[in-house]
Write a structure and sequence with these properties.
two-stranded antiparallel ribbon; 23% helix; four-stranded mixed β-sheet; flat; alpha+beta
Length: 239
């Protein structure tokens, strides 16, 4: 079966039109190239450079300051020589020798020993203290005493803190973080109580509660009582 081609799709019918369009484009490009104008570039005069010119540099004249020589002190006045008659006796000064004989005993004064200054130990963090402060009523080894201390501090805070205060302040509901820090000094007293809270009144209440902690048995580092810093975070639930 022979496939018939549509006469409109045969490009040979448009060959004359394509050739005429090509000739027109070629003539247009040739005309544009002929009519394009060009200009010669001109360079201005840069002047004449005198390479033989020498630059004169002024050298400042400096004077050398002579050092002032110290004046030579006058010679000391000669001592007065007393003339003594031949028949007069003159007392001679005897100079004793300071050298000692090996057989001669030398007395040595008693040496007083100076006591060494006591070593000053700075405050130690609760997490690295050798012997942690002891909360009243806690017993056990070092680890048990540390755990008991933290547990009793949290218990004290829960009992003494006004739990209704956050709700009365109109804070948004949810958990609110409170960070507390204080120090147990060398006598076991609670000092330097600090707090960071979402409201100034809560901060004041936290400081008031932590100052009510009882007196502790002070912590010890290398066998000596030291100040111990303690930090603990708390969560407040606001409904």
């Amino acid at each position: 079966m022979e496939i018939k081609k549509n006469p409109k799709s045969n490009l040979e019918n448009y060959s004359k039109i394509f050739m005429q369009i090509g000739l027109v484009l070629a003539l247009f490009v040739t005309y544009a190239a002929i009519e394009k104008k060009t200009y010669d570039k001109s360079i201005g005069d840069l002047g004449v450079v005198n390479m033989m010119a020498q630059m004169e540099e002024e050298i400042p004249i400096t004077e050398r300051a002579e050092p002032v020589k110290p004046k030579t002190p006058p010679p000391p006045a000669p001592e007065v020589i007393e003339v003594v008659e031949d028949d007069k006796e003159v007392e001679e000064t005897v100079i004793e020798s300071t050298e000692t004989d090996e057989t001669e005993a030398v007395e040595v004064e008693e040496i007083v020993e100076i006591a060494e200054a006591e070593e000053v130990v700075e405050d130690v963090n609760f997490m690295i203290i050798e012997d942690s402060p002891v909360f009243p009523g806690c017993k056990g080894d070092k680890k048990e005493l540390k755990d008991c201390f933290s547990r009793m501090v949290q218990k004290h805070f829960s009992r003494k803190f006004d739990a209704e205060l956050p709700n009365e302040l109109g804070l948004s509901s949810g958990k609110k973080r409170v960070f507390i820090g204080f120090k147990i000094d060398r006598e076991g007293n609670i000092v330097n109580v600090q707090a960071r809270a979402p409201h100034p009144k809560i901060k004041s209440e936290v400081i008031r509660v932590m100052k009510m902690l009882p007196k502790m048995k002070p912590g010890r580092q290398r066998g000596k009582p030291v100040g111990v810093s303690y930090n603990i975070p708390f969560s407040l639930l606001v409904e």
